[in-house]
Amino acid sequence: MLIDINTKPIPENHKVALARPGANYRLFQDFIELSVVGAELPGLFLRDERVDIHDEQLIARIQRSKEIRAWHNFGRNPERVPHISLNEYDNAADDPSTGQLLRVLKFYLSDASAGDLVIVPPQNFGGKVHIGELVDDAAGAFLTYVQRYPGDPIVVRRVKWIGTLDKVDMPVRMIEAFRKPTPLLLVPESERSVFYNAAYRNYYTNRRFSSTFDVTSAEFDTTSGSVIPAFFNFVAANTREVDRKTGVIHDFGAGAFLKLADYAPHLAIDIQSPGTLSLVSSYITPLVASALLALAITVGPAACTDAFLGNLQVSNSAATIDDPCIVPVREQVVTHLRLLGYDRWAQACELLKETADKTGLQSEATVKGN
Length: 370
What we know:
36% of the residues lie in helices and 19% in strands. By secondary structure, the chain is of the alpha+beta class. The strands form 3 sheets. Strands 3, 4, 5, 6, 7, 8 and 9 form a 7-stranded mixed beta sheet that branches. The protein starts with a strand and ends with a strand. The mean pLDDT is 94.
């Protein structure tokens, strides 16, 4: 039997950037439909030229691109077509606009790696923010055409759209910071959780573990509202015991109400139909809770038998085969179930199964095999 914890590992050097899709958000639809992100610099490199952040005339290229952009946006006057020759432009310009665009190009053409996230918001607050994961490293940057700038390509990076959220749900600090006309803003670690939750649902960094649980029914009564957080506290209490190798285990009723200090996970609840619950901790509790819930609903009391536990394996389809969370999650799950025994685990299964039947409660972990 295999449990897939389906949890994205976030590397320590991971970058998250909030990217404006052109001035006045005018390239938003192009970016979404083409699955690309980039700076609004038409004609920075021409069709047959190689994209190169180290180009000796990059400053002149930026000046030319700004002229081309303005020409398109102000009616394409045939008498004022911008010069193509870079010799017509200042390659030593040091104005703030040029410096800002250089930093943006450095992000797209040098700093940002495959797997980093780029957040693209719409102009209006009723729209969806799109979260894209960069597909290739910077060497994969290429030229493409958008409707706004026929004949003058822009430099872009390919993204895979992996999540959305309402613009009003963005962190307030990010909304306020993005009111300034900046084309790109790096998101600090303290503001990333809402984007990670929307993109990955289950993930971990070197500081926190986070799991998302779904409820698909509007029938969320007081019993369900009590059982779900009680289950999370029950798992956290026993995760602490396993971490400390005490040999002690708490049944559902006792574990549900223990004071756990820093072992108590943070629970964010958005109960709509469907709704979500996000469990976050500096300990591995969220991943253990995700796996145990899947076992309780899918396998039931039989999951605690020696025959089952002896063949139980844990994998992570969102990571490499040597993911460091696999071994501790398996150790936690197996120790929980062995110490609980049949009767105490069966009691927890009964409560969870009843709650799942009412609310559609489920985790991102999946159980595979016979």
